[in-house]
Design brief:
Elements lengths: L10 H24 L6 E6 L5 E6 L5 H19 L14 H33 L8 H26 L1
Antiparallel strand pairs: 1-2
Helix pairs in contact: 1-3, 2-3, 3-4
């Protein structure tokens, strides 16, 4: 029986990941630089209006980036696992194109999430420093629409490649 090889990750996925990771690191760096200027308590849970729902210690500014990093690492792991052929019961292993579709889908989702959470970090930093919020309600809806679009496109492309 012919053994399938690992599917390489497309070059644009590597480049996109480097760009988005650089932006994330810049966001963390900016937050670290401004950390001493933050008040002892900062708004941590905000509604999409200008009201603050809850206040917490200033270290809470790093909660969201930590969650973003954990999601990014999980999705990066899944992206790497999607490159390898998996034996399935009563079905042939996924083709090279099907695995590449999975890699691209995970790549786009992980980078979109990290980019949005970085944007949210900048918003939290601006609000904590007493400036106007930059994250508006329609930004969150746009992000969810983008994420859904990427997910649905990956599924549809997977079905089309299956035929």
């Amino acid at each position: 029986m012919h053994k399938q090889q690992k599917t390489p990750t497309p070059r644009f996925c590597h480049q996109l990941t480097i760009i988005v990771t650089t932006i994330f690191i810049a966001g963390i760096t900016a937050t670290l630089i401004q950390y001493h200027k933050l008040p002892a308590t900062i708004p941590v849970l905000q509604s999409f209006t200008s009201e603050q729902a809850q206040f917490g210690p200033k270290i809470a500014i790093f909660y969201l980036p930590f969650i973003a990093l954990m999601l990014f690492l999980l999705l990066h792991y899944l992206e790497m696992k999607a490159a390898y052929p998996v034996m399935r019961k009563k079905k042939a292993p996924l083709s090279h194109q099907q695995r590449q579709n999975g890699i691209i889908t995970f790549c786009l989702i992980k980078n979109s999430i990290l980019l949005y959470f970085t944007y949210s970090l900048f918003n939290d930093l601006m609000v904590a420093l007493g400036h106007e919020r930059i994250l508006q309600q329609w930004h969150a809806y746009l992000f969810l629409l983008l994420l859904s679009g990427i997910f649905i496109a990956g599924i549809l492309r997977g079905f089309l490649l299956d035929k």
